[in-house]
Amino acid sequence: MAHKISVTGCPTSSIQGYGKYLTFDMEEKGSPNAPKGIPFQSNAITYTVVLSQKQFKKLNINQEEFSQRRFLVQGEPCLDIPFEQCAGEIGVICMQIQEIEDKEKEKKQTPKKGSRAKKQEESQPQEEIRQEQEKKPLLVPKGTRDWMSLEEIKVPEAFLQFTPGIAKQKAVEESIKKNGTVDKPIIIDPDTHELLDSYSRYFVAKKKNLDRVPVHY
């Protein structure tokens, strides 16, 4: 009988394409406490999941949104993944994948509120919220040559095929929250306004609906 394995969690890497197949990494933490009488604790394990293009299309999620969702993967374990860019300790040949709700995230993002607080929040105009955000002090990153709207920056197709890693996104999000903008200027071509580097900063700035970003030539 073949071995079965189920893994739940969010992707920790962007999707890598290999023809008819795709791969991505996931990390799952074991139980914090071992069963009574067993003097060991479970450590986090990194898995590399291999799935078909057909399985991915059934999810109806684009690659940019994929890394922000939570999934249940069911399949068979494999210790010899035949792809070079797979960092997982254990491979998982995906038999079934489905999106699941992140209950912990929902609890943090949607705290319980009284009916009066809900009405006040709903009645607050969007323009006021935007004005409050604009009042935050804006840090000018070192090396900034100019400021430019995201619409003016042309992004090559090669960048759009990948999703920045979760760690990179969080670092940029922290900077935006603290300083009002990305931590470093985005590198562009001065003549064509084509993006040359810093796609992760562009990606998060667009996700956060920033009106303009610092750029360097």
| Principal-axes shape call | globular
Number of DSSP helices? 8
Sequence of strands across the biggest β-sheet? 1-5-6-4-3-2
Strand content: 25-35%
Radius of gyration: 21 Å
From N to C, what is the helix and strand string? EEEEHHEEHHHEHHEEHE
**Amino-to-carboxy terminus distance:** 59 Å
Stretches where pLDDT is under 50 for at least 5 consecutive residues are: none
Q: Helix proportion of residues, in percent? A: 25-40%
- Number of E-type strands: 10
Category from helices, strands and their pairing: alpha+beta
Describe the protein in words.
The chain is of the alpha+beta class and 217 residues long. It contains eight helices and ten strands. The protein has helices spanning 53-59, 63-66, 103-109, 115-123, 126-134, 157-160, 166-179, 199-207; strands spanning 5-9, 16-18, 21-28, 45-52, 70-78, 90-100, 146-149, 186-188, 195-197, 212-216. Strands 1-5-6-4-3-2 form a six-stranded mixed sheet, with helices on one face. Helix 7 crosses helix 8 (199-207). The termini are far apart.
How is the topology of this model organized?
Blueprint: E1 5-9, E2 16-18, E3 21-28, E4 45-52, H1 53-59, H2 63-66, E5 70-78, E6 90-100, H3 103-109, H4 115-123, H5 126-134, E7 146-149, H6 157-160, H7 166-179, E8 186-188, E9 195-197, H8 199-207, E10 212-216
Parallel strand pairs: 4-6, 8-10
Antiparallel strand pairs: 1-5, 2-3, 3-4, 5-6, 7-10, 8-9
